[in-house]
Amino acid sequence: MPWADSQGATPPKYWAVRIEAEPEQLEATAAWLLDFGVSGVEFEDGRAVTPCFGDDQWMPSEPPHVTAYFADDERWPSVAAAIAQKSQRQGFTLKISSILSEDWQNAWKAYYQPIALRYGYGIVPAWLTSPFAPAKAIRLDPGMAFGTGTHPTTKSCLDVLLEQGAFKSRVLDLGSGSGILALAAARLGAGQVDAVEPDPVAVRALRHNLELNQWAKRVQVIPGTLDDLPDGEPYDMVLMNLIRDLIVELWPRVRPRVRGMAILSGILEDACSEIEDVVRESGMQVLQYQFVRGWVTLRVGA
Questions:
Q1: Whose CA is closest to 151, among 267, 30, 23, 18?
Q2: Which of 39, 185, 246, 291 is most exposed, with minimal Cβ within 10 Å?
Q3: Is 248 in a helix, a strand, or coil?
Q4: Alpha helices, DSSP H only, in the chain?
Q5: Which of 52, 279, 70 is nearest to 151 (CA)?
Q6: In contact, 47 and 293? CB cutoff 8 Å
Q7: Average pLDDT over the chain, rounded to an integer
Q8: For residues 49 and 225, which has the higher predicted lDDT (pLDDT)?
Q9: Burial level of 173, CB count in 10 A (0-12/13-18/19+)?
Q10: Which helix (H) or strand (E) holds 266?
Q11: Which candidate, 190, 185, 196, 126, places its Cα nearest to that of 158?
């Protein structure tokens, strides 16, 4: 989703840059788009999707593509020209369209329905009636922040978290987004959750979601990055639903803060071996693999 600027203001207009590529090229394409100062990025890998309710698969109606979002500011014309040149060299199909921030905030809600999780738990859009037991429902309004629970990486991370439980645990959610993982940990009875998030839009959504679930006193929101996390006792559980590059970069500094386990997600299958190496070099090992539609979530421990 598009982000706010450093002052937390949301630009009224964004440019959506869509590049069609083969599934195995999507991650690399997203990586070079990030170099242009992208405000948000999403993938469509072209694979069939199994809905949360029912067994029939939904086949995507569009080819595999990456869509990146750029604020409509003074940098945009030069950025657009550079992206067009690189896309032409790569032989990619490029489409650029404009979108209003107001459309982001409202149009998608019609398609966001309750999500059933394991053991009777579920995610409920804040504006809908919950089909789940009150003690197992997580109310969520992601707004313009990443984290609805529908992406395979988030869903897989939630599955492992629910399997392991978090009762009375000290939990770190690094890159919390809308707060879905922090909320799930709180719902499972975590004693303390620290949610670290650099995006001002996501921080606002996270705080709103904590109020929706009446967990504002149980989850500490830390605007910023790992550098802004205060020193303290190690964590029983660390949640990192990020991307390969960030996990590789941050893990050596996160490792000393882990006294129990970590759940690492946002990893494409072909990057799994690299993450395994980084984990082993830190003195930990992979205890569980969960593969979903080309992505893998790892549970690691001593």
A1: 267
A2: 291
A3: helix
A4: 26-34, 76-90, 101-106, 152-164, 180-187, 200-212, 244-254, 272-281
A5: 52
A6: yes
A7: 86
A8: 225
A9: buried
A10: strand 258-268
A11: 185
> What is residue 146's predicted lDDT score, i.e. its pLDDT?
64
pLDDT value at residue 164: 96
**SS3 annotation, 54-79:** CCCCECCCCCCEEEEEEECCCCHHHH
Res. 255: pLDDT tops 50: yes
Mean pLDDT of 119-130: 93
How far apart CA 114 and CA 122 sit, in angstroms, is 7
Closest CA to 171 of 116, 218, 114: 218
DSSP state, 46?
A: -
d(CA 123, CA 117): 8
What is the arrangement of strands in the sheet containing 13-20, beginning at the earlier edge strand?
Answer: 40-44, 65-71, 13-20, 93-100
Q: What is the pLDDT of residue 40?
A: 67
d(CA 18, CA 16): 6
Contact yes or no for 295/241 (Cβ under 8 A): no
Burial class (CB within 10 angstroms; exposed 0-12, middle 13-18, buried 19+) of 283: exposed
Tell me whether strands 192-197 and 170-174 are parallel, antiparallel or unpaired: parallel
Please name the residue ranges forming H helices in 91-224: 101-106, 152-164, 180-187, 200-212
**Tokens representing 187?**
């719902």
Domains of the chain as residue ranges with CATH: 13-106 (3.30.70.120), 145-301 (3.40.50.150)
Average pLDDT over residues 249-272: 96
Average pLDDT over residues 229-244: 95
10-30: pLDDT as tens digits: 556 788 899 998 888 888 888
- Comparing 50-59, 63-72, 80-89, 289-298, the range with the smallest average pLDDT is 50-59
